[in-house]
Amino acid sequence: MPVALESDPVMNEVTNYTSPIVLTTYGSTVPNLACKPKSGSYSTTSNGVTTSFTYTDTCSRSWTVGEAMSPVGFQWNFLPRNKAQPFFIGHGSYMYTTKPIPLVQAGSFNFTFDLGAGVELYRSRTQSIRAEYRFHHISNHGTAIDNPGIDNGVVQVTHSFGH
After folding, report:
1. pTM of the model
2. I need a labelling partner for 53 at 20 to 30 A (CA). Which of 13, 34, 65, 148 fits?
3. If you average pLDDT over every residue of the chain, what do you get?
């Protein structure tokens, strides 16, 4: 893959202090779980001073660019002479990104693998429709301080045609 894109949720928080001073702060964090928009207000008193503020959390995504190569792969077609050909597929690769993913302590170099299954339906010798599902995993295998890993499912439908 000459270009690989990885996306993480980001929570953006705007805090408006109203007492004892008027101040607005902005911050962004990568949540441990899914980002959920929310808002509210809060007041607390300590040593006779009341601090009050409102907050608004919104969600966005942070994109990281990288490159990957899959030097190891296989595809096993069942019924290779039939118009409908079920198959198993898998790849092993590496991925290098412009910044650590998904956390700063995780590093920019990761290993990836995917395993899946699908079916390819041949309409003619030069045309086919292919549908597949793959489980895809990314992690650094302990090469950095933290190794959180990223797991996802990929559904792909492809139409191939030729002369």
Report:
1. 0.69
2. 34
3. 90
Nearest Cα residue to 83 out of 141, 129, 19 = 129
Which residue is listed with tokens 């390819």?
A: 120
Domain ranges of the chain: 6-61, 65-161
> What residues have CB less than 8 Å from 23, skipping those under 6 apart?
16, 17
Half-sphere exposure of 45 (CA within 13 A, CB side): 1
pLDDT in tens, 11-37: 899 999 988 889 999 988 776 677 889
